[in-house]
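Figure 2 data, in text form.
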Amino acid sequence: MNKLNLSENLVRLRHQKKLTQEELADFMGVTKASVSKWEKGQNTPDLLLLPQLAAFYGVTVDALIGYEAQLSAEQIRCTYAKLCRDFASLPFAEAVEETRALAHRYYACYPFLLQLGILYWNHYMLAAEKEEGMQLLQEAVGWCERILQNSSDVGLCSDAFALKAGLNLQLGKAAEVVEALEPAADPCRIAGQNGSILVQAYQMAGEAEKAKRYVQVKYYLDLVNLVGDAVLYLSLYEEKEAACRETVRRVRGMLELYQLEELHPNLSAQFHYQSAVFFAARGKKEEALEALLCFEKCVGRLLRAEEVKLHGDGYFDLLDTWMERLPLGSMAPRDRSFIITSVREGMAHPAFDSIRGQQEFQRLMRSLLEQ
């Protein structure tokens, strides 16, 4: 992602061709002084000469001037990680300005625009004013619409469609989200069986390894989605104590059985936190503290790790290859400082007022915020 470097490229390409400035000047029909000024960055070739220079050296005009319209997957990951650090360490306005500058520069790199939209979704709440945060979300919606209008990548457009729905939900446009998602999300639609059909097709085509990798990833994601749905269940059915208690019992068993607190501590922490909110809101102090202890354990895993990364294990032994193919690879979309900020805000939930003065809660607070 270098800045335009026409002068350096002209020097490098001429040297590769083993030409003198005089020889290039003769070919281009200009003076040696003109070539010298081009290579020193004191002047630039006439616009009409750029295609001729590019053709002579056998490169594109973009390559000649050093313009990168597209970023590689690795560049996208590195840039996202840097911007995450900037949102955590720089003034919010500076981080936003840098993000916008990159969006303008790589406006035709649609995978990058998608990740910038995710970046805004993960950090908009850091804005000092609510209106500023909403403006960022709306800006990200615009990037999604650009992807949907211009990209021919079906998978990328599907991701942009889902991201746009999530952004609009944060913007309070619930009716618009329902209208967009309800037809495609209908559980009765046969499209929900695509994964199973694909696995069988791999087997029939003799591609056993692809079938194994796909079914393992699908299996893992089904578990992850189940835990995520349980978090929603606890928030939607909080008035049904028996149902929520049974949800906590079953999901805790599944977290232990599949070792999800180690595989996905962030999602596990969300579940334990929602369980604590449920118990605290009903005045069940001991059970709320028990859930917070589980929450503390998961957050501790996140904060003690040198680098927060998704990973497989001895059972899910084919996940790592898939994770490396994700747009952000195996890295987490938010950094350590953001996790601490989120924990601080979460522990301020009114449901915990009934246990806030207890010694164990105070210890938990110190443990969570001092790691």
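Caption note: The chain has a mean pLDDT of 89.
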